[in-house]
Amino acid sequence: MPELPEVEALAAYLRERAVGHTVDRFEVASFSALKTYDPAPSAVKDLPITSAGRHGKFLDVGIGPEIHLVVHLARAGWLHYRDSFKSPAPLKPGSGPIAIRVRLDDGSGFDLTEAGTQKSLAAYLVRDPSEVPGVARLGPDALAVSRDEFADRLRAQNGQIKGVLTSQEVLAGIGNAYSDEILHAAKMSPFALTGKLTDDQITSLYEAMREVETDAVERSVGQKAAELKGEKRAGMRVHARTGLPCPACGDTVREVSFADKSLQYCPTCQTGGKPLADRRMSKLMR
Known about the structure:
Elements: H1 4-17, E1 23-28, E2 49-55, E3 58-63, E4 67-72, E5 77-82, E6 98-104, E7 109-114, E8 122-126, H2 133-136, H3 147-155, H4 161-165, H5 176-185, H6 199-220, H7 228-234, E9 254-257, E10 262-265, H8 267-270, H9 279-285
Antiparallel strand pairs: 1-6, 2-3, 3-4, 4-8, 5-7, 6-7, 9-10
Cofactor: Zn(2+)
Pfam families: Fapy_DNA_glyco (PF01149), H2TH (PF06831), zf-FPG_IleRS (PF06827)
InterPro entries: FPG_cat, FPG_N, H2TH_FPG, Ribosomal_uS13-like_H2TH, Znf_DNA_glyclase/AP_lyase, Znf_FPG/IleRS
């Protein structure tokens, strides 16, 4: 799933490439992807792209004086920028992975796509981004929150730190991948309880969050959209590296699997050398 650094990079790429150009056509191939009906897609024709930014993991493309295309790419969604399209013909509904296509006046534009059969990509045409339910519920941005506010928001929760970090209502922008990286950098177990964190642990976690997210943004911004996924994978130290050596200590990176996702960690760096119980594997061994 694209997280804060990748969405920030996509916004930066659109600011460089698309802002200032006019929408020629806004085409919807997957009607389930567009969650709004007013303004209608036809309302953006001949309007300029005026801005590109984000709200947590939501991409926000400003169109004309008062319309926003707000997109949550979900687990398998992506933005593909085209310098030119192969065919001028309109998209056919249900034609492959393309959910929405935005054609611009210079022949370029971008596709919003989603791989797989589980369709979760969500796009909204709204006059105010706060009209999007997910945006309205967001906590402060992970790169904008102060250390004291960070501490207050964590201590207001009662749960395992991995889940709290990835709750968008607590902090906006952090997902499964970068929470693994932040916890590794902070040398903290993903199952540590927020209510038991000391002031020093919270400070270490805050500094790790700032370092990991800022570094990822710096590596991502300036990359073409097609290169961002590879850049993300290359920068990971534990996430999606199960069975490989930890770059910090050399221990083997371990995994805990859940129904629809997994987390990765280093026992030596994060859990005092003790592997965490993998409930899925434990059931298979019975």
